[in-house]
Design brief:
The protein is 0% helix and 51% strand. It is an all-beta fold and 115 residues long.
Length: 115
């Protein structure tokens, strides 16, 4: 059974950092690219960053370029999102996603950035 479990969210002040984790269960993690998405209240879910199955390549949305870093540890079956210089507009629920023939999503972790 495929499961993705996010953690690491919380309440921080503007300019601070957070590291999100997404632990994967039930599939061969190293075979799949992984992504982080976020959804702010009243807005559509948007892509934040993607990392290839080996971790050799990453892409970022403009909103996170230069501030966010996606990494993965295939031995631990975990993907991470390091977020620095957080802004109030980064406030959202953050989700990890496994693509492929069927999409799988985690339950999300709330990130709130106060000004």
């Amino acid at each position: 059974q495929v499961r993705l479990v996010e953690s690491g969210g919380g309440l921080v002040q503007s300019g601070e950092s957070l590291r999100l984790s997404c632990a994967a269960f039930g599939f061969t993690f190293s075979n799949f690219a992984m992504s982080w998405y976020r959804q702010a209240p009243g807005k559509v879910r948007e892509l934040v960053a993607t990392i290839t199955s080996t971790g050799g390549s990453t892409t970022y949305a403009d909103s996170g370029t230069g501030r966010f870093t996606i990494t993965r540890d295939n031995a631990k079956k975990t993907v991470y999102l390091e977020m620095n210089s957080l802004r109030p507009e980064d406030t959202a629920v953050y989700y990890c996603r496994r693509g492929g023939a069927i999409d799988y999503w985690g339950q999300g972790t709330q990130v709130t950035v106060s000004s």
